[in-house]
Hints:
Mean pLDDT: 84
Number of domains: 2
Largest sheet: 5 strands, mixed
Structural class: alpha/beta
Shape: elongated
Helix content: 40-55%
Number of strands: 7
Radius of gyration: 24 Å
Strand content: 5-15%
Distance between the termini: 61 Å
Low-confidence stretches: 1-64
Order of helices and strands: HHHHHHHEEHEEEHHHEHHHE
CATH architecture of the largest domain: 2-Layer Sandwich
CATH topology of the largest domain: Zincin-like
Amino acid sequence: xxxxxxxxxxxxxxExExExExEAPPPPRFPGxxxxxxxxxxxxxxxxxFVLLGAGSESGSAAEPTPTFTPRPTATPTPVAQGxxxxxxxxxxxxxxxxxxxxxxxxxxxxxxxxxxxxLIAGLLKCEQAAKSxxxxxxxxxxxxxxxxxxxxxxxxxxxxxxGLAGVVQAYxxxxxxxxxxxxxxxxSSTLRNQLFDVTTLPxxxxxxxxxxxxxxxxxxxxxxxVTEYLPQLEGITGKFPxxxxxxxxxxxxxxxxxxxxxxxxxxxxxxxxxVMVISHELTHSTVYGQFPIWFEEGLAYFLGYxxxxxxxxxxxxxxADLRQIGAANKVDITNYGYYSDWDYIAETxxxxxxxxxxxxxxxxxxxxxxxxxxxTKTYNDNELLAAILQYAPEDKQTALxxxxxxRVAGTTRNYCVAGQ
Length: 421
């Protein structure tokens, strides 16, 4: 089942219906976001228990939503609102179920429609279609009904809240349609109940919706504050954030050695890891995933986690200590493409971090940012990446970069240790 249902903590919950055998997921991305702890675990997103958004029957099944359209007396709508409502009536509502369409029409804001609220209506339609394809045609109406019952909604839905709510709806729709995206139906009720969503403005891509799910409302609000504050800073360094929203779930059951996980616009962080370092690390993966070799992407994620949390020095000390403990040299080995063992993974990510920190030491944050943004125009293998970093570096930095390659990289096809190379 994928339906969102209302939680009833005072009543025993029915056993969930058996799920079909899921297809095998791809290898998990980026376990861990701290240099402390030497075990790296491979984790996949856990499918959350589904939480109902409608009152259950005595047997525990969900009651069908029965929204009704009650016309409300309003002032004469403006011409803009009339045009937007006509668009809703011709393009969106006729394609909805009657229950969802009536629920939309019954909202106090419907007569004075704005672009943000029209976008919410369009998102509800798309969400309902996605849920219907999964055999849950009532899920979108139940989600929206549950949102309308919350205190933050009752005092009037402004455009910022409408934009945030549209992002929540889009995240749920994306979780139903995107391959290997986590199931969020069991956790999104915490987002709606505690208004754990907001809109932040990024320097290059503009408004993005930040969505948090957390059973602990305090941790959820902390995560929301961190993402809304630091995602703009991160985009300023790395370049365009590629998704319309970011969804972060605070989960209690990640293994101790795993601080966070990232899958594109969906992130999980452990309850003990709701901090700037871990969240910035995972946001980096969401931004640049797949464009760089693993050692460099991990190195950049560690670097930004420590840089944005003002702890670069301690991060470098921890990385060096980890390498000493496992008896590994501090050179990135680009002849090793497997990273099959935990030790390989630990060594290459620590080396990658120290390499990126050395780039920062040479170029400064503005120079490193310019390099990363220039590099994001394509994907690279190891040797192509090293050559491109040199290409984009100012001429007065190239000698120092070649020395860095000579000292910190093994297995290059070009001998950077020879003068003139």
